[in-house]
Specification:
45% helix, alpha/beta, 6-stranded parallel beta sheet, 6 strands
Length: 256
Amino acid sequence: MNVLVLDLDDTLVDDTSASREALTQTLMSVKPDVDSGSVDQALSHIRKMWSRHPHRHTGPLTSVSGWEALWLPTTGSGLPAAVADSLHTHEIRVWETIIESLRGDPGQAAGAARTFRACRRRALRLLPGVATGLKLLRRNHALWLATNGLPAHQRMKIAATGLEPLLDQVLISGEIGVTKADPRFAAAVGRSLRKDGQEACLIVGDSATQDLQLAGNGGWPAVHICPEGACAANVPCGIAVTHAPSLAQVSVRCGC
C-alpha cells in the first residue's frame, strides 16, 4: 500500500485562524472594544518578541511559531527546566506588552495568558473536510504524519482531534532532531518507508519551505495546500507539485 505523508498544522488541524480567534477572544476579555487592527498589532508583538527569545532555536522549539509558544504544555514538555521556565516568563512578558499597547493594566497579563490557553484549546479542531477526506484516503493508502514541533504538544493535538486511530505512523521533528526542511528528516522518512517495505505516494502540506522541501529532499511528488488552490510557492527543482485548496481535493488528485 502506498503512503501519503501528511502535515498537521493548517493541513489537517486549524492553526492560523484558530489562533487568531483565540487571540481575539483574549483581547476582548481585557478590552471589549478591540478590532482587527488590535489583533494585528498583538500578532506583531508576538512575532517580534518570539524572534528575540534566547531559546527560539533550541531543539524542538526551532519550528514553533510565536503564537504556539503561548500555549505549549507547562508540564511534561521534555524541555530542560531552564528552557521551560523561560517560556513561562516569555508568556507573561508578551501579554504585558500587548496589554500595555492597548493602554490597559499589565497586571492583567497572567489572567490573559490563562484565557488565551483556554480559548486556544477550545479552538482545537480539524479543518473542514479533513475527517471525511482521511477516511476516503485510507481506503488505498497508509497515512503517515510528518510535523514540526514539540512532541508533547503535537501528540496532544493528534489525540484531541481524533486523528490518532487514522494515522499509521507519526514523525515529529522534535523526536527526529531536525525540521522537515532538513535533508536528514527526509532520510528518516526514507528509512521508515524501506523498513516497512512501502513507498511514498505524495507529501501533502501547506508550507512551501517545509513540506515542499521535504518532498524535494526525498524526491517525492507533493500536493501543496493553499487556500486559493493555486499559488506562487517556490517549488524545489525536479519534483512534481500540484496545488489544492484543501485535503478534500487530494483524494481526487491522487492517482495511486
